[in-house]
Amino acid sequence: MIDPTDGQSIRTITITDVDLIEVQQDLEAESRALGKARYRNKRNAPWIDAIGPGSDEASLPPGRAMLRRTLKPTADAIRAFLADAKSGRAGRRHAAFDLLDCAQAEPEPLAYLTLRCAIQAGAREVRAQGVAKTIGNAVLDHLRAEEFTRLNPEGAEGLQRSLAGRVMVSQKRQRAIEAIQDAEGVALNWSQHELVTVGLKLIELAIEATGLFELKLIQTNVGKQIRRERRLCLTEAMHDWLERQHERCELLDPIPLPMVVPPCPWTTPTDGGYLTPPVGTRLVGSHSRAYADELSSVDMPIVYRAVNAVQATGWRVNRPLLEVLERLTTEGGALAGVPPREPEPIPARPLEEDDPEAVERWKRDAAKVHARNAAGRGKRLALAQQLWVARKLADFPAIYFPHDLDFRGRVYPIPQGGPHPQAGDIGRSLIEFARGKPLGPSGARWLAIHVANVFGIDKLRFEERIAWVEQHRAQILDSASDPLDGARFWTTADKPWAALAACFEWAGYLRHGEAFVSHLPIAIDGSNSGLQHLTALLRDAQAAPHVNLTPSDNPGDIYALVAAKAQAMIDASRDPGAAPWKDGKITRGIVKRPCMTYVYSATARGMGDQIRAELGRLDEAAASNGQPPHLGGEDNFASATWLATRLYRLIGDTVPAARAAMEWLKAAAKAISALDLPLWWTTPAGLPVLQRYPNTKAGRIETTFRGKRLQLQIAEEAGARTLAEWIDEKRAPITDSRQAQAGIAPNFVHSLDAAHLMLTVVAAQDAGICDLAVIHDSFGTHAADTDRLAAILRETFVAMYEADPLARFRTELVEQLEPHTKLVAALPPLPAVGELDLQTVRGATYMFA
């Protein structure tokens, strides 16, 4: 094994005299081939249901387009058939009408179910009778669920809640659902003949309405006999169209890999990243063609410089860490977040006649094991992909990650399948900077702070964190020298793999001193970034100390403050709902996620889900130690719901300026949405942002298959409109006002943290800091450069907010409404600002720590 503490050694690279451009071209060809294979597997997977929630022809992009275009004519044909049969005109009524009319069937769900089954069957040329039976069963499922809802609305809603987290519903559970429906009085049942009758009529109507399908008489030889059967097929024209669209989708769906040469710089919105960019490559993700066209004419030097600087950072695989991971997975895993290699065995089922209660307990325990095994399968697949990419690129002297932006300007690496700078603990720790730098005196200090941070000792003063590292020198050295056979101190860390990488570096420092050449990115994170931005936006002196925007000897902690306030409120409360939370049950972890997401428009209901998730983690940890649940056996759902509504108000009262800013943003979005316009603004880094939540031409379709309700939005969205068009002619609304109001606060704040990142990256590059690891509000560079990067972060933050981005935002909204000045009055005035002196932020050493 390579000595990970030997910072002076140079690893032997086996790749020599190789044209890296050719290697990169081969990697991009492999990426496209992998994408094609993945896409084809989606089409041919044998486990796919004819109409299940998995991937089938009707759920892939060409099939969805086909379904969207044919849903209305098929529904119209079904509606006409039902109306004609009901009219009482002379003639024999089709048997399918009586079956559908008695069940009060609606045309749109029938059309959706018919097309979803028929597209899949038509692409595979399935026997007509088999397709008809599948459609009949799907329709019967839907109609029985509708009848159950009419008979027992609360029971139907409860059943759907129990199925909400399930992607697939097992046949056993489907039979149980049918039994529940029968017990509640659902009488609708069709014979096999009736199922086929309904299905064949719906196929006939779909053929007449769409021209997509045809019933072909297929003749085959079976021994000495000739078999003739009708099969549902796509018409030749539609089959050719479908195949052409699939070929196009194969090119659009590559599996991106890291590069072994620096990415092409972005100079326009379409020309950066890979040597051979995939079809449709764009710098900024957006579904608006008008926005994309507009962006190509906008001068954005800071945006281009920032993205190019981030993706020009060279990385390499952390070989010592890779070796530990490979050994651990070979030996069975189940340590430090690595899933076990084998699934957990299901406990033996007791005999029901011996102990019925034991059987019920077994069912609950077995369900939990099944859930853990399902989660473990996903984790094993993700880890296998990360290890495959790491092994593939381990011998290259440098690898690179091309980046792009979301519509708010947030920077993301394009290759997401393997290790990358924004991956989870394992994926991020598997890579390090390709270029090393000697620590020097300031770097040694920051390396010690980083070691403490990744172990979770990140709420103390810097000097106390450094002292903690010194106190645990023996354990850190043991982790570095013998990660798996030693005491495994590194596995106790909050981020165990980042901790192991830090232990390797700290051991190297202890061995070589300040001359140790470090490759480890030292991450410094913002203190509740969203709240930091809103606090600076309205210069809130009250909240500033708690999010570390003022100089202080000790770091502030908004989560601990809210937790203390919540506990005091609960301890003083006589409400019975407070009882489970008394006696110190409000932990920092319970309030952390609600506090983090409050400024991103989290609701009380969403906070309830977050609290329940944290209670689940606490209960699991307690059970593993033989201790009772965190709330002593009280109902977690009811307790979390009670706390969430009060915690939501308490957070708002603790940060009133942030609440005022969010309310103003929502009011502005409401005013613009009332005019049926999208929201445009420009970030402080110069990126135009378009918030566009389009309405749709058709309403939602609800249907039920195999007991599970599906809510479907099939119609294509309405096209974009200009203000002039709106003034000249009133049309159906194109903007979803509710989504626009819910989205404006998080989107605006994210655009601000994205702008701060870009301004910081450009300033760091000007200061000679060229290796950067960024994750929105987390910034990493070499330990030797961290002092300077921390200062730059504060300087750019102050400069950005001295320019008053909220006032600029309002000005841009006013400009969008001119020259129609009467509409400007719909915008509310800006909220009042506080007395925070932004210059004090320059001395706030714990702002990023």
Name the descriptors.
849 residues, globular, disordered N terminus, three-stranded antiparallel beta sheet, 4 domains, 16 strands, mainly alpha, T7 RNA polymerase, domain 1, Alpha-Beta Plaits
Describe this entry's structure for a reader.
The chain has 849 residues and is mostly helical. The protein folds into 4 domains: 1-27 and 262-286 and 297-511, no CATH class; 45-251, DNA-directed RNA polymerase, N-terminal domain (T7 RNA polymerase, domain 1), CATH 1.10.1320.10; 521-543 and 656-693 and 736-849, Alpha-Beta Plaits, CATH 3.30.70; 557-654, no CATH class. β5 and β6 (411-413) form a beta hairpin.
State the shape.
globular
C-alpha end-to-end distance: 34 Å
Q: If strands are numbered along the chain, what order do they take across the biggest sheet?
A: 1-3-2
Overall pLDDT metric: 86
User: Uncertain segments of ≥5 residues (pLDDT<50)?
Assistant: 1-17, 44-55, 714-730
In short:
The protein folds into 4 domains: 1-27 and 262-286 and 297-511, no CATH class; 45-251, T7 RNA polymerase, domain 1, CATH 1.10.1320.10; 521-543 and 656-693 and 736-849, 2-Layer Sandwich (Alpha-Beta Plaits), CATH 3.30.70; 557-654, no CATH class. Helix content is 52%, strand content 8%.
How are the SSEs placed, and which strands pair?
Blueprint: H1 20-44, H2 61-86, H3 95-102, H4 107-124, E1 126-127, H5 128-151, H6 153-163, H7 171-183, H8 192-210, E2 213-222, E3 225-234, H9 236-252, H10 289-295, H11 301-311, E4 315-317, H12 319-330, H13 356-393, E5 403-405, E6 411-413, H14 425-429, E7 431-433, E8 437-438, H15 440-454, H16 462-471, H17 473-481, H18 496-512, E9 517-518, E10 522-525, H19 529-537, H20 558-571, H21 588-598, H22 604-624, H23 636-654, H24 656-674, E11 679-682, E12 688-691, E13 701-705, E14 708-712, H25 723-728, H26 737-766, E15 773-775, E16 778-781, H27 786-802, H28 805-817
Antiparallel strand pairs: 1-3, 2-3, 4-7, 5-6, 8-9, 10-16, 11-12, 13-14, 15-16
Helix pairs in contact: 1-9, 2-4, 2-8, 3-8, 4-5, 4-8, 5-6, 5-8, 11-26, 15-16, 15-18, 17-18, 19-24, 19-26, 20-21, 21-22, 21-23, 22-23, 24-26, 26-27
